[in-house]
Amino acid sequence: MGPQQDRRSMANGKRKETKVVVVVQYRECQRNHAASIGGYAVDGCREFMASGADGTAAALLCAACGCHRSFHRREVEPDCDCSSTTSG
């Protein structure tokens, strides 16, 4: 899960609150394994899978290819929670 943001707006004199949840997923590995010899080769890892539990150092390493999470393509999808609460 990603960070949550609160958005508040005034509609018809009433405060309306909506929560927007941002979902972040890490896709294929883009690490160039042949960079040291001047070539280009990726390992073919299709999606990041964490090696350990959230909050640990192992959660940042991919179980499939062993690379750090930063080598994987980041995909951000806003997931709107459209249920709003109205307070007076």
UniProtKB/TrEMBL annotation:
<dbReference type="GO" id="GO:0008270">
    <property type="term" value="F:zinc ion binding"/>
</dbReference>
<keyword id="KW-0479">Metal-binding</keyword>
<dbReference type="InterPro" id="IPR006456">
    <property type="entry name" value="ZF_HD_homeobox_Cys/His_dimer"/>
</dbReference>
<protein>
    <recommendedName>
        <fullName>ZF-HD dimerization-type domain-containing protein</fullName>
    </recommendedName>
</protein>
<dbReference type="GO" id="GO:0005737">
    <property type="term" value="C:cytoplasm"/>
</dbReference>
<feature type="domain" description="ZF-HD dimerization-type">
    <location>
        <begin position="26"/>
        <end position="75"/>
    </location>
</feature>
<keyword id="KW-0963">Cytoplasm</keyword>
<keyword id="KW-0863">Zinc-finger</keyword>
<dbReference type="Pfam" id="PF04770">
    <property type="entry name" value="ZF-HD_dimer"/>
</dbReference>
<keyword id="KW-0862">Zinc</keyword>
